[in-house]
Amino acid sequence: MATDQAARELGLMVDYLVLKLSGLIDVTADMKSALTMVCTTRATFARGDHVIQPGETFKSVYLIMDGWATRSKLTSSGARQIINFAIPGDFLCFNAALFRESEVFVRAHTRLEAFVVPIRPFSEMLLKQPQLAIALAWTAAQEEGIVSERLLSLGRRSALQRSAHLLCEIHKRLQTVRLVKETDQFELPMTQEDLADALGVSLIHMNRVLRNLSKTGLISIKRSSVRLLDLKALRSLAGFDDDYLHLPEHAA
């Protein structure tokens, strides 16, 4: 029974990743087998647990199976800037094969379940599966694109536009791994403080922006769930173009 459960969970993990990659390459049975061979150890993190902190030496790469994580940095005064949110099918510490230490905080934003892949087996898998390695490099390119777009938001978009843009971005990323309902509703396990720290605004301002988006009929928020009521108008408000996400063709 336990073995069957582990197999189902492993299959789910691979499914999320395959959904992300299938528009880029033909994910073969050998590639899936290579992934499952290195994903033999599972770790569970409670909400708020650190996966790694700045200055810590990389030991493993993590592949999220369930839950969300954040990458963030702190100022000398302790103010937090959330750089990005990681979702199922995303890697954490992907650059562990290239760099020695982490430069950011990686934390479990919710209860987080991930497969732990030691650096050496991960590197060997990439060498043996060059097509898969190239496809996985896309995940790093997407991360760079997200950071660049966030910088544009922080520097040139209003708080309202930033918020609309982030919601459109998360919607698109979740849609790629089929975690969005047909009604454009999805789980958004973020507090207003989390959103404020991602978008560089005060908590009070964040509250006003969300109320504005709700009152104008663009979104509906209920607990940790968000529904985009008028996706076209929200994208127009944000000036959202998903080219920077480098999405596979099937998700564009």
Helix-strand layout with pairing:
Blueprint: H1 2-21, H2 29-38, E1 41-45, E2 50-52, E3 60-66, E4 69-74, E5 80-86, E6 91-92, E7 105-108, E8 112-118, H3 119-128, H4 130-156, H5 159-176, E9 185-187, H6 192-199, H7 203-215, E10 219-222, E11 225-228, H8 231-238
Antiparallel strand pairs: 1-8, 2-7, 3-6, 3-8, 4-5, 4-7, 9-11, 10-11
Order of helices and strands: HHEEEEEEEEHHHEHHEEH
Helical amount:
40-55%
Whole-number average pLDDT? 89
* Low-confidence regions: none
Given the structure, what is the number of helices? 8
Number of domains: 2
Spatial order of strands in the largest sheet: 1-8-3-6
- The CATH topology annotation of the largest domain reads as Jelly Rolls
Amino-to-carboxy terminus distance: 39 Å
Largest sheet: 4 strands, antiparallel
- Please compute the radius of gyration using only Cα atoms: 18 Å
Total number of beta strands:
11
Level-1 CATH class name of the largest domain: Mainly Beta
> What portion of the residues fall into strands of 2 or more residues?
15-25%
What class, by secondary structure content? alpha+beta
CATH architecture of the largest domain: Sandwich
Shape: globular
